[in-house]
User: Which sequence fits this backbone?
């Protein structure tokens, strides 16, 4: 199994441009998450989804949008890129079960906005 | 909101020395997870602790959950260069969806 797959791996954007970070998982996990990780820092939750058609804001949602049309896919949209959004973006998934379950992470997208 | 402090922020050790990182919460936790992130890599789940006073071992790694379920530690015995990376604790927050709040991490450097 591929697990969680993110594309692209690297991207450079100009200020004001928009782009979509793709994330797909083949583990049939209900829960999916988007995090950002700034250099030398921990992970901050941007958005999460408990299943197809259901999304909700995390800790740092401003400047981002998400959708969840299928169980497998959870794309993250940046509409008007700003330098503050330069970061590494990780997508993760976990199964739905009682109690907390481990999260499985993709390899990340390294995004620079100049 | 959830507050979890992780110390130290950085640790440099000679290969073969021991290493410990600590995670402290202001509130009682239902459980705590630990993740490892190699340089340039993604976080990888190591373990989850649930019970008060729980101790779990994975080879040279020992994980402890405090009696009050407000703190946890990860201890590595006789570090190796393969232990290099950042170790994060993560605690539940919010409602549903298994959301996690990640600590700031401890970056471990092992000097050969």
Assistant:
């Amino acid at each position: 199994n591929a697990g969680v797959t993110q594309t692209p791996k690297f991207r450079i954007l100009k200020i004001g441009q928009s782009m979509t970070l793709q994330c797909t998982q083949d583990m049939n996990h209900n829960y999916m998450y988007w995090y950002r990780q700034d250099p030398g820092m921990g992970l901050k939750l941007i958005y999460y989804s408990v299943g197809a058609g259901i999304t909700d804001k995390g800790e740092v949602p401003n400047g981002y949008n998400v959708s969840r049309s299928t169980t497998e896919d959870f794309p993250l949209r940046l509409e008007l890129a700003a330098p503050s959004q330069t970061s590494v973006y990780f997508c993760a998934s976990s199964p739905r079960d009682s109690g907390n379950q481990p999260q499985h992470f993709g390899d990340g997208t390294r995004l620079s906005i100049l | 909101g959830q507050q979890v402090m992780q110390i130290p922020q950085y640790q440099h050790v000679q290969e073969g020395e021991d290493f410990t990182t600590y995670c402290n919460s202001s509130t009682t936790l239902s459980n705590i997870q630990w993740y490892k992130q190699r340089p340039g890599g993604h976080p990888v789940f190591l373990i989850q602790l649930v019970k008060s006073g729980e101790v779990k071992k994975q080879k040279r790694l020992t994980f402890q959950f405090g009696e009050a379920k407000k703190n946890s530690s990860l201890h590595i015995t006789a570090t190796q260069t393969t232990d290099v990376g950042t170790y994060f604790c993560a605690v539940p927050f919010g409602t549903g969806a298994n959301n996690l709040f990640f600590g700031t991490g401890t970056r471990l450097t092992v000097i050969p």
